[in-house]
Design a protein that fits this description.
Strands 3-6-8-11-12-10 form a 6-stranded mixed sheet, with no helix packed on it. Strand 4 and strand 5 form a beta hairpin. The chain is mainly beta and 153 residues long.
Length: 153
């Protein structure tokens, strides 16, 4: 590799190292004053994430796991929770489902969402019921293991 008179070496590498060090130092202070991300890329203290609202269109709920860990959705139609985009191994979170206020709806699940004994979770069929699905993405990023907590009051 030619290094003499190369504007990208080694000064650019030193700039990159310094920029990354500054980034990690700043990141350890940010995070909404809740968690602390250290240079080792480990969280220290509690870390709370806001809920991102999901919507359904054409009987499908699209979900991008890069947007958040925690989601919520109020059902307005019988629908299916689609396979997510951007799953990350080890990502965990919850999806809160709020039933329609006057007519309960049904929810089906894409095969990405795996359930105990192979039986998909079900929602409480009561007006305005609240159910919470917990998930963790497998190391292969090919599926998420899920459980459903029903009729939260």
């Amino acid at each position: 590799m030619k290094t003499r008179n190369n504007p990208f070496f080694p000064a650019a590498i030193n700039e990159l190292v310094n920029a990354l060090a500054t980034y990690w130092r700043d990141m350890s202070r940010i995070v909404d004053g809740k968690g602390e991300l250290r240079e080792s890329n480990e969280w220290h203290k509690s870390n709370a994430g806001a809920y991102k609202t999901l919507t359904s269109a054409s009987a499908s709920i699209a979900i991008n796991l890069a947007d958040a860990n925690n989601f919520k959705h109020t059902l307005t139609e019988n629908t299916t929770l689609a396979a997510p985009s951007n799953p990350t191994a080890g990502q965990a979170g919850v999806i809160q489902f709020n039933q329609h206020a006057s007519a309960p709806k049904t929810l089906a699940f894409n095969a990405f969402w795996k359930w105990p004994s192979g039986t998909d979770g079900t929602l409480t069929a009561t007006n305005s019921a609240v159910d919470v699905m917990s998930y963790v993405v497998d190391s292969s990023e090919a599926f998420a293991t899920c459980v459903m907590l029903n009729d939260i009051k």
